[in-house]
Specification:
four-stranded antiparallel sheet; Transcriptional Co-activator pc4, Chain A; single chain; 4 strands
Length: 73
């Protein structure tokens, strides 16, 4: 169950979003990955993992932030 979405953050970092199971828990993991010297992506400690059931609330919150940014512009 490892759905995977990569969003380039900059030349060296990628925001990776994946759904996974950890110790019997269904999670969505949002983490920064960096390219090492050989160009291979490695995870960092920067990020978060939330229960997959909280994903709709997270999406709603992000939509509100995005809408408030659009109104401010």
């Amino acid at each position: 169950m490892a759905d995977l979405i990569d969003i380039p953050k900059n030349a060296r970092e990628t925001l990776r979003i994946q759904r996974e199971e950890y110790q019997g828990h269904d999670l969505v993991n949002v983490r920064i990955w960096v390219s090492d010297d050989s160009g291979e992506l490695r995870p960092t400690r920067k990020g978060l993992a939330i229960q997959a059931s909280l994903t709709p609330s997270l999406i709603e919150a992000l939509a509100k932030v995005s809408a408030s940014d659009a109104e401010a512009a």
